[in-house]
Each structure stands twice: as structure tokens, then as C-alpha cells.
């Protein structure tokens, strides 16, 4: 059964009081045209008109804020805490006409709430559905931790993701696309508490896999650049990753450090993510090519031509 939240006027106003600073900051951060926000006071006259006017402003901001903007903001602002995340999620869950955007925001908020409340040192085996449901109980209420039959494919997708050893494998496996498709096809069934808990666990675990593989790729690139520099290589042909044919290794190192920050907030970053995968492939090719050049036969064959993909200075 779809979760329905019907707060009292006092509870509703208290929730808006918590969310008003967050939404005002969102409006400023992304230059949202929503007019002046409501004046939420500690002890308002709880008229239905006041609540409706305030709610209308929040709904207008909701329409204009995309899920990636909400994700970026909440993962970088000091305003984020357990209370804010709980009230933000309740705000979206209490809507009567939920949109796909509300679903995606709810999914992100549940994962973010779980990430904030769960111990940081958990093993993957500790993150079972019963534990996720327990942590999410303040939002979703008590429930039986049983996986809905129609969500059985989630476990298969997770197993496929955990078998990936490189980020390129994860991106080409189709796991991310299949998970998003299952979520979009769930329609109103998504808002069943057991389904929301199952999707939250899936999204949390997929995010863990992504970050492990992303850091592995970045570290492999940085290690490869250091090894190439040790061999005297100072530029690489990185056109496949949309860089230049003679990209300085120092600049590539700086780019990798910036990516560590950028990818922290988003595990489906589109073009930059593909660039990361292609950059690792370019570094791997340069390492192999430079190693081949080091053999006696290769040195004799290329003595007069040292302008390949990896150049030495």
C-alpha cells in the first residue's frame, strides 16, 4: 500500500519551518524564480490560508529544482542534517499527485538519510533489507522487511554490479540503466514502504560499488602517470578522452584530483564519467606502448620516430 502522510496543521507548519532556510538557500543557489518565500515564524497563527500560501511557494520551488541540483546542494551545504533530510522526505511523500521527479528526489533523500544515520564502517554484508528498513523507520514507519516479488531483479542487478572490476565494466554492463528502468516502471508502487526500502538499499549499494570503482580508476590513472613520468614521459595522446594529442601529465593529475571532488556528489555524471573511463584506457595504452618501446627490437625499429602516443622530453 502506498505510504500516505497526513500531518496535523501544527506538524505541517513545523515541517515548513525546518525546510524554509533550506529552500531559501536553494532559491539563491540556483537562481530560482519563485517570488518571496513565506515568513515562517515560531508561533504562527495557524490559518489554513497561511499554510496553503506557504505550501504553494514550496511547491513552486519543487517544480524548478531538478534532482541533480538537490543532490549537489545537500551534499555540499552545512544545512544538511538528519532532521532536514527527514522533513524533506516527508514533504515529498505527503504530496497527493507525485511526479517522477518527486520519486527520484525521494529515492535520493532516503539513500542520503540512510548514509547519514548508518555507521560508516559497515561491511556490505551488514546492509541487508531488514537493517535498511530499521534505519528508515522514522520516515517509512515500522514494516516487515520482505522484498516485494516484483523487485526480485534488484538483487540480480546488485550481484552483477559487485562482479565488475573496473568502472568501464559497470557502465557497459547496463546495470545502472536497468535499475533506473525498473524504478521508472514501478509508477505508484514505488511509494509502498517496502519498495522504497528495497530501492534505497539497492541505490546505496550501487553507489558504494561506483565509488570503489571510481577511486580504483583514479588511483590507477595517478599511478600510471607517475610511472610514465619515471620513464621520462611528459605528455600523452588523450584524444579518445577528449583531451589533446599531447596532454601534459601534470595537468592530467590536476584533473584527476578535481574529479575526486566532482564525482563524490553524482555517480551518473554522463560525459565527465566517460572521460574518466577513456582517460584510464589512454594511460593504460601509453604504459603498454612505452613498455614495448623499451625492448631492443622496438628501440631499433623506432630509433628515428619518437612521436607516438606517449612522448618523452
Task: Describe the 3D structure.
The protein has 313 residues and is mostly helical. Among the domains are: 1-104, no CATH class; 214-294, no CATH class. The chain is built from 14 helices and 3 strands. It has helices at residues 9-30, 48-64, 67-74, 82-93, 100-117, 129-135, 137-140, 153-162, 167-173, 175-185, 193-230, 249-262, 271-293, 296-301; strands at 233-236, 247-248, 310-312. A 3-stranded antiparallel β-sheet has the order 2-1-3.
| Residues in helix, % | 55-70%
Low-confidence stretches: 295-308
Radius of gyration: 24 Å
Structural class: mainly alpha
Largest sheet: 3 strands, antiparallel
Helix and strand string, N-terminal first?
Answer: HHHHHHHHHHHEEHHHE
Strand arrangement in the largest pleated sheet: 2-1-3
Which overall shape is indicated by the principal axes computed on the Cα atoms?
globular
Total beta strand runs = 3
Number of helices: 14
Amount of beta strand: under 5%
| Distance between the amino and carboxyl termini | 67 Å
Average pLDDT: 85
Concise synopsis of the structure shown:
The protein has 313 residues and is mainly α. Helix content is 63%, strand content 3%. It has 14 helices and three strands.
What's the SSE blueprint?
Blueprint: H1 9-30, H2 48-64, H3 67-74, H4 82-93, H5 100-117, H6 129-135, H7 137-140, H8 153-162, H9 167-173, H10 175-185, H11 193-230, E1 233-236, E2 247-248, H12 249-262, H13 271-293, H14 296-301, E3 310-312
Amino acid at each position: 500500500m502506498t505510504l500516505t502522510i497526513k500531518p496535523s496543521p501544527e506538524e505541517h507548519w513545523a515541517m515548513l519551518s525546518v525546510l524554509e532556510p533550506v529552500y531559501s538557500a536553494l532559491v539563491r543557489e540556483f537562481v530560482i524564480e519563485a517570488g518571496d518565500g513565506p515568513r515562517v515564524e515560531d508561533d504562527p497563527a495557524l490559518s489554513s490560508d497561511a499554510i496553503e500560501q506557504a505550501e504553494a511557494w514550496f511547491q513552486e520551488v519543487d517544480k524548478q529544482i531538478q534532482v541533480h541540483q538537490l543532490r549537489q546542494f545537500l551534499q555540499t551545504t552545512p544545512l544538511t542534517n538528519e532532521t532536514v533530510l527527514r522533513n524533506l522526505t516527508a514533504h515529498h511523500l505527503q504530496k497527493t499527485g507525485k511526479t517522477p521527479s518527486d520519486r527520484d528526489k525521494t529515492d535520493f533523500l532516503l539513500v542520503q538519510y540512510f548514509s547519514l544515520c548508518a555507521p560508516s564502517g559497515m561491511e556490505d554484508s551488514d546492509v541487508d533489507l531488514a537493517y535498511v528498513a530499521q534505519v528508515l523507520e522514522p520516515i517509512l514507519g515500522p514494516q516487515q522487511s520482505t522484498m516485494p516479488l516484483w523487485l526480485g531483479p534488484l538483487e540480480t542487478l546488485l550481484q552483477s554490479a559487485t562482479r565488475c572490476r573496473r568502472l568501464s565494466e559497470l557502465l557497459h554492463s547496463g546495470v545502472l540503466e536497468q535499475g533506473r528502468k525498473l524504478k521508472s516502471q514501478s509508477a505508484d508502487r514505488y511509494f509502498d514502504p517496502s519498495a522504497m526500502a528495497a530501492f534505497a538499499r539497492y541505490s546505496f549499494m550501487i553507489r558504494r560499488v561506483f565509488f570503489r570503482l571510481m577511486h580504483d580508476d583514479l588511483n590507477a590513472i595517478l599511478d600510471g602517470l607517475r610511472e610514465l613520468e619515471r620513464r621520462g614521459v611528459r605528455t600523452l595522446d588523450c584524444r579518445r578522452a577528449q583531451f589533446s594529442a599531447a596532454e601534459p601529465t601534470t595537468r592530467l593529475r590536476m584533473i584527476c584530483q578535481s574529479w575526486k571532488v566532482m564525482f563524490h556528489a553524482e555517480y551518473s555524471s554522463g560525459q565527465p564519467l566517460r572521460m574518466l573511463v577513456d582517460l584510464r584506457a589512454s594511460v593504460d595504452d601509453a604504459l603498454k606502448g612505452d613498455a614495448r618501446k623499451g625492448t631492443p627490437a622496438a628501440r631499433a625499429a623506432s630509433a628515428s620516430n619518437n612521436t607516438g602516443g606517449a612522448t618523452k622530453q
